[in-house]
């Protein structure tokens, strides 16, 4: 006689053997898949900001704790425990935030942050994102373990799926995680429903079809409010360089790109500089994120430390624009509506500029010679060092090792000398190209060891990672190069002038810019693109001052002006201050426009062939050869899944058979065996007569059925078909002519039923 479970065993879901059986249920696979999907996203976050090992340990403890308590406590108690764990975690997160930032916490600010998280605010933008993950991730994992331990697989999958859904809304969960979550949910629900082998056999095909449909749907329809996600693997089209550098709070490193020659601004400035629009502090391995909040610019912003010069710049928008380019470092702005500043000192517009709007920006530009910067202190502020030396935990060691080799070969000691050595190395060893394949894994590692060409985003990202591996505070900056000089202190800036570079922090001086992108082939690509646009008669690529027939004494033209894209390349009229051997290459240091520390001499190692080859010329236009139109493997896989799903769905639902039965009588067929043709003709006739009259009843003979529909008004030609069928089925002596007559009668009856064709065949 079997033992009845005790009260405790019943309350806890049964004995240990029963619990083991529940954990061995096939539905656990689905729970594990969706739980792994959301945990992978959390670990991606901690990989960027640190603390993956600590988070993994806490999450594992929470999951095991949930499994253990599944046998000991009821569901209400478990939910109370999860709530207490959540509150304790958030309290710990709140206390971990510096007191200066905690003072900004209000009910309104927290509510706005929660709303922002649900509409595309990445977890990476939160203060102390690693602590936040450590506070939040254990709660759903505890509940997943608890419900799985009780055999409540659908509930466990729902908790995991809800967590993943939240991460999809923040934009941290990509398509792969979303698809994995959908598959896991489908498996958990489906396998829980199909709990017996017989039901699994009976519904396996339908279940597989539903899972496939859910996967395709999740890969096709975006649920990210702030995103413009495209279906899995589908080519989103080659983005312009300008649009890829205007990613607002997040910037993703993409593959091949195009140049947009449309005019964006006219800028009047006494200094010819890169026009700064933004900076990023967090490197994710495949892009950049900027953290922190914005504040309104009511008064002057802090000026940089050390010697600097005041510069006033007037920016006129030529098209609607959401950026405000200005020389670094801006300290005040007037005109053009409300202006905000983020925590890095970049100016941000509260509302877009309209064509013709003007904004005047006062900037304080660095005034220091290279010798001063080379001998500067390395006593970095703690907040600067922590924020701007961050690298993902997964960054390969060989990035730092290669950097060490480069600075050692250049005998570079100070951070300034190391930055100059790395800049010179990247310029000399890598070519410029707009046509590149987006790398997998860490961008800096891939560019250093697997690629031989790229554009500014790749050069700047790689240099930033290399410098950070040396413990040098570095940030990724975006904006525009000077553009085309069209008059004294006047520049026309186009979309194709969008650019990225890096800046290192020098104590007592602030941020000092370096540009590792080779300038000559880059300028050649821009010239080619502009010439193509002008030849095609494109609109908005010139102002009155920049039109080709307006070129006068404002030379040098765009090429000469944009050569100053390198912040340390001297320009005509700049005062050169020679101070000895300032760089790894032995070039003389100079003081360039606006007082920025510059390197005198020519750029080394630029491959001139890239200026006219596919890397620059055709890459600028976005075409590189006859095979560019071929789909990539992910696109092909997506459409293969869609096609397979369509075929399976048609077969499973019987659509193919029904369509064949409806269309078959209309199509001419090759004559075959007369008996088979006569029998097929009668079968087609039955389907034709079923809708306007009635179906043939069980046990009703063909003759009686035909007589019945004749009384209901059926055409007399049905008699021809019935006669041929009776000879074929009962006498076996139907002739070829009789079978053909039956087929023709059925086909004509079918054609006459068509809405338009019918009136012409009667």
What does this structure look like?
The chain has 762 residues and is an alpha+beta fold. Helix content is 48%, strand content 12%. It has 30 helices and 20 strands. The strands form six sheets. Strands 8-11-7-2-16-15 form a six-stranded antiparallel beta sheet. Helix 10 runs antiparallel to helix 11, helix 16 (397-409) packs across helix 19 (456-469) and helix 18 packs across helix 19.
Write the layout of secondary structure elements.
Elements: H1 7-11, H2 16-23, H3 27-49, H4 52-69, H5 75-96, H6 99-102, H7 107-117, H8 129-136, H9 138-149, H10 153-170, H11 175-193, H12 197-220, H13 241-244, E1 250-252, E2 263-268, E3 275-280, E4 282-283, E5 287-289, E6 294-296, E7 308-317, E8 330-334, E9 339-342, E10 347-349, E11 358-366, H14 370-374, H15 382-388, H16 397-409, H17 415-429, E12 431-432, H18 443-449, E13 453-454, H19 456-469, E14 474-480, E15 484-487, E16 490-494, E17 498-506, E18 510-514, H20 519-535, H21 558-562, E19 589-591, E20 597-599, H22 609-612, H23 614-621, H24 633-653, H25 655-663, H26 674-690, H27 702-711, H28 718-731, H29 736-752, H30 758-761
Parallel strand pairs: 12-13
Antiparallel strand pairs: 1-5, 2-7, 2-16, 3-14, 4-5, 6-9, 7-11, 8-11, 9-10, 14-17, 15-16, 17-18, 19-20
Helix pairs in contact: 3-10, 3-11, 4-9, 5-8, 5-9, 9-10, 10-11, 11-12, 12-24, 16-19, 17-19, 18-19, 20-23, 26-28, 26-29, 27-28, 28-29
